[in-house]
Design a protein that fits this description.
The chain has about 80 residues and is mainly α. The chain has helices at about 5-10, 10-20, 30-40, 45-55, 60-70. The protein has 5 helices and no strands. Helix 3 (about 30-40) packs antiparallel against helix 4 and helix 3 (about 30-40) packs across helix 5. The two termini are about 30 Å apart.
Length: about 80
Amino acid sequence: MTTYQLLRANESLLRLIADNKINVADVAYLEIYSKFEKMRKEGHKVGYITVYLGDKYCMSERGIYKIINRMKKKLNLDD
């Protein structure tokens, strides 16, 4: 497969990503956000979760908050 073929096959998804200014490198943070959501459903406070995840992933609390905010951002699905 070539780069062109990959881009062409996923063109609409990639346009949606680009239009919403989503950084594809954020895929690295999917596990962190998944753990955040799980802990929220278990009833933990956001402050506790950010400290816990920051310690677990060797990140600052602010870094965890930034990830959470980026993942919660509503997308513009209009053309």
